[in-house]
Amino acid sequence: MVSGKYSALAGAISREQRLANISTNLANVSTVGYKKSRMSFESLLRGEQQTKVAKGINFSRVRENFTEFTEGPIRGTGNPLDIAIHGEGFFKVQSPDGTLFTRRGDFQTAQDGTLLTGNGMPVLDEGNSPILLSGTETSKISVNSIGEVATLSIDGTRNIIGKIAVYTINDTKLLKRESDTLFSLKENGQETLLQEPNLAVGNLETSNVNMTEEMALMMESTRTFETYQKVIKAYSQLGQKQDELGTIG
């Protein structure tokens, strides 16, 4: 009976972790470039271990947290510094701890003219250097579909001053989430520079979180969690009755 109680407890903890995961997704439903997080579960004991050692009791736990990198909906803004990536690819940015990757394209300029992401990270060019737009008004900046950043003179001449780098990753499972939209590359991960990426200028890629789907998952997980709680309570009550019966006579 004690084993059954611990089995229910393991299930309740796993579902509680899943609810926290879903809550994070819902909190970022409006975050530009956010990629939803998912969980998979596994049994701690399998085969003969479960039937002979655990006597059929199934202890479960979270197997892994992973990110779904499916493309989010594209929303037009008309802002020349809002850029979405069509298909595969990531922008490369500089953080205090090294280079990171993101799909977040709501760019802005710092006071010194450095091109930044919406969360304040310098955007890097093909040479891993920050892109500087110093002394240039946003209205006089143009970015084309392959990431070339140029200034526009009065006569309409384009002077290229940099190029926003876009990289593909050999295996997105090797990307580790560092914050809401930022990812670091794990060991054995390989980045490949795209020479001609497909960028949608004046557009933003919104979160790939589907609110309806997340709410359905939340309700299912809540019901499962409540069921485990009832099972734990039932085992506790049975234990109390068993103790009472053991003291008779």
Describe the protein in words.
By secondary structure, the protein is of the alpha+beta class. Helix content is 28%, strand content 28%. The protein has three helices and 17 strands. The protein has helices at residues 2-27, 47-53, 211-246, and strands spanning 37-43, 60-67, 74-76, 83-85, 90-95, 98-102, 108-109, 115-116, 141-143, 148-152, 158-163, 166-169, 175-177, 183-185, 191-193, 199-201, 203-205. The longest helix has 36 residues, at 211-246.
How many strand elements?
17
Spatial separation of the terminal alpha carbons: 23 Å
The biggest beta sheet is recorded as:
4 strands, antiparallel
- Strand fraction equals 25-35%
How many structural domains? 2
Structural class: alpha+beta
Mean pLDDT: 83
Please bin the fraction of helical residues.
Answer: 25-40%
Please mark out the parts with pLDDT under 50 across 5 or more consecutive residues, or reply none. Answer: none
SSE succession: HEHEEEEEEEEEEEEEEEEH
- Strand order of the main beta sheet, please? 6-5-12-15
Large-scale geometry: elongated
How many whole angstroms does the radius of gyration measure?
A: 25 Å
Supply the number of helical segments.
3
Key attributes of the depicted protein:
249 residues; alpha+beta; 2 domains; four-stranded antiparallel beta sheet; three-stranded antiparallel beta sheet; 28% strand
